[in-house]
Amino acid sequence: MALIFLALAVGVGRAMALAIREPILRFTDNGTFQIAVFSDLHYGEDIEHPQLVVINGDLITGENTYKHNSSDYVDRIVAPLVNRSLLWASTYGNHDSEFNLSRQEIFAREKRYPNSLTQSMVPMHSYSSGVSNYYLPVYSANKSDMTPKAILWFFDSRGGNEFQTVDEDGKVVAINNYVDSSVVNWFTTARDKLNDLHNTTIPSLAFFHIPVTAMLAFQQGPGVNPHKEPGINDDDPLDEQGPSDGSFNYKGQDKPFMKALVETKGLMATFSGHDHGDDWCFKWNKTLPEMDIKGDGVVLCFDRHSGYGGYGTWTRGSRQILLDERTLGSQTETWVRLEQGNISGAVVLNSTYGEDYYPVVLDTHT
Ligand SMILES: *[C@@H]1O[C@H](CO)[C@@H](O)[C@H](O)[C@H]1NC(C)=O
Ligand SMILES: *[C@@H]1O[C@H](CO)[C@@H](O)[C@H](O)[C@H]1NC(C)=O
Ligand SMILES: *[C@@H]1O[C@H](CO)[C@@H](O)[C@H](O)[C@H]1NC(C)=O
Ligand SMILES: *[C@@H]1O[C@H](CO)[C@@H](O)[C@H](O)[C@H]1NC(C)=O
Ligand SMILES: *[C@@H]1O[C@H](CO)[C@@H](O)[C@H](O)[C@H]1NC(C)=O
Ligand SMILES: *[C@@H]1O[C@H](CO)[C@@H](O)[C@H](O)[C@H]1NC(C)=O
Ligand SMILES: *[C@@H]1O[C@H](CO)[C@@H](O)[C@H](O)[C@H]1NC(C)=O
Ligand SMILES: *[C@@H]1O[C@H](CO)[C@@H](O)[C@H](O)[C@H]1NC(C)=O
Ligand SMILES: *[C@@H]1O[C@H](CO)[C@@H](O)[C@H](O)[C@H]1NC(C)=O
């Protein structure tokens, strides 16, 4: 595990030095950096050797938990990662906030583990911003190079119900399902500061649990081509970011977030879960039906459903993302490692992704 110890002298003239254990993400000496994306079950780790695990939302099904022990599930979820000394970073999903379960509790429980890189960089105002909004820099294999080579952005797409709250009728109170504009403002400011500080456009990836509406517009508009966007496409129409009423009609709640994504130079791809029956990636490079935002070529991907909780029996898997320091920004390799050990939907996200011809994936169930 890439733990380095920084000895920091605290205060002028003070003899004592405080040792801070600071995990640093970096490309391996091979020039590669691999990310494995899970929702809530961990396997395939004996085959893949990721530098980071992303737990991309819906860690726990909060509807079925008890207040007195709901966050104990975190210990079970991370046990295999702790066992293998893997570092992880989480986003929280719509099932992670319920009457008996709160994101803050999950976060606090996660932070008992030094392997958790999850952070909360946007102060939470009521339920408007969520908890898991932050970024992680990934550094070069060259330890003298202090410019981050990639930035990993994590966003909280919220959802679920308020913790221990009921309305006048005794009903639970729903939380909106989209990345809030307060978070978008934090993102664009932090992004511009990072690029200014390092005087370069740093390539990036983004992770958030619920997909943006552009994925629905693509699915319902041009449509998913099984050779060009290989993947399962069974959740049709897919469920996208929006208000808490769960309507499929586009009302623009995630528009500020989508605008910020397409305006982010160097953003290579985004990754979402939520729709267990979809695992394709598409390149957003035009204006989609009913949307007045033009994609800039960013690739929007689904993860593969990993957990045994939640709906659906599609063969469980984990999306793998392989970055290479030498080709960063021009290509990203990605594939789904299935529970049975084989691979599904291996593609190269490069300038011709969307035109390149791939074999159709098998739609298998367990
Ligand atoms: C580097 O590449 C070699 C050969 O492909 C492989 O055996 C090794 O595990 C890789 N090391 C890391 C840290 O990825
Ligand atoms: C919340 O948890 C308590 C016990 O900790 C349990 O009695 C109650 O039924 C749970 N409520 C819901 C809505 O799940
Ligand atoms: C929480 O408590 C309930 C009963 O009180 C039990 O059935 C359940 O297994 C517990 N969950 C965990 C994660 O310990
Ligand atoms: C990891 O799990 C294996 C199998 O359960 C166990 O034998 C081993 O001691 C664990 N290692 C650590 C570091 O916890
Ligand atoms: C490592 O980075 C430093 C600082 O950017 C640079 O001067 C040096 O040439 C780099 N080394 C290699 C082998 O690229
Ligand atoms: C920033 O980068 C540009 C283009 O690479 C270069 O011309 C300029 O001198 C750099 N500015 C600073 C302050 O390093
Ligand atoms: C993109 O990757 C695919 C799959 O490896 C390849 O066939 C295609 O030639 C690549 N495109 C470019 C521009 O390199
Ligand atoms: C968008 O990408 C597709 C597939 O790569 C390509 O066929 C199309 O020409 C591109 N459109 C624009 C406007 O760049
Ligand atoms: C993966 O391997 C299993 C067992 O060999 C096979 O049944 C299944 O069809 C394969 N799945 C895919 C998507 O190739």
From TrEMBL:
Q: Which domain of life is it from?
A: Eukaryota
Q: Which GO terms describe its cellular component?
A: cytoplasm
Give the CDD domains listed for this entry. Answer: MPP_Dcr2
Q: Which residues form the signal peptide?
A: 1-17
Q: Positions of the region Disordered?
A: 221-249
User: Pfam families per the record?
Assistant: Metallophos
* GO molecular function annotations of the record: hydrolase activity, acting on ester bonds
Q: Please give the InterPro entries that the UniProt record associates with this protein.
A: Calcineurin-like_PHP, Metallo-depent_PP-like
For this UniProt record, the keywords arranged alphabetically read as follows: Signal
Q: Where is the Calcineurin-like phosphoesterase domain?
A: 45-276
Show the PANTHER family listed in the entry. METALLOPHOSPHOESTERASE DOMAIN-CONTAINING PROTEIN, PHOSPHATASE DCR2-RELATED-RELATED
This one is known as Calcineurin-like phosphoesterase domain-containing protein
Q: What is the lineage of its organism?
A: Eukaryota, Fungi, Dikarya, Ascomycota, Pezizomycotina
